[in-house]
Amino acid sequence: MAAPKKRYLEGLRVGDELPTLVKPAIDRVQIARYAGAANDFNPMHVDELAARAAGMPSVYAHALMPMGFMGQFLTDWLKGGRMTRLAVRFVKLVWPGDVLACKGRVLARRCDEQGRYYVDVDLWAENQRGELVLKGHATGQLFFSAEDEARQRRGEPPLIVDVSEQGELPRTIKGRPITVKPAAAARTSVAKRPAAAPPRKAASDKRPARRAKTSRATIRPATRGSKK
To answer: Is 103 helix (H, G, I), strand (E, B) or coil?
Structure first.
């Protein structure tokens, strides 16, 4: 069976294994060329004597070289999709003569509110001895189907399809066909806000109100000798 020219999310299921990509044996010339491309001439990669003086059996490959293999592995598998994220952790050094096998597995499928579909993939690479040299995960963006791609190419809203967490696309829900809606007509859930608390009553001022100042006349007692 011929491989599909383009990959769509509807054809993927959680747990699907990605076809293994086996790279040719790495040699010192390839490592030197990578050093030139990356402008990274660390003696551990290009100077055999310096590497041995540091206690290494020989020069070894740049860590980003197997990471680049992973990028190639994923973009080739997406077949027209777009890689949006790649994160890896380096486990073991890669030496001249190592043959790396890049492998992967589908972890999840999801769709955002704008009708963009994503596939999350678990990735790892092993050498010819079966030793893990690199592991990580990546995310790719795909159209849901050829129909979804055609709609968006025409400037129409994308299809919004219920993609279950297990990767299965249920064609029926409780015996009824699944509803496929354009993004513009798709219903979105709105988180309920808690009921607003009743307004607090203003604290009563227990202090007595001040009396308005009144003007008072000063009455002086009569002095002796004053006429009555």
So the answer is: strand
Say how many C-beta atoms besides its own lie within 10 A of residue 196's C-beta.
6
Whether 23 contacts 69, CB under 8 Å? yes
- Model pTM? 0.68
Give per-residue pLDDT as tens, 147-196: 999 999 999 999 888 786 554 433 333 333 333 343 343 333 333 444 55
Instruction: Indicate the helix (H) or strand (E) that contains 118.
Output: strand 117-126
Q: Hey, where are the domains in the chain?
A: 9-25+62-185, 27-60
Identify which of 84, 88, 115 has the alpha carbon closest to the alpha carbon of residue 102. 88
- Find out if CATH 3.60.21.10 is the number for domain 9-25+62-185: no
| Alpha carbon distances (Å) from 132 to 10, 44, 86, 180 | 31, 21, 18, 42
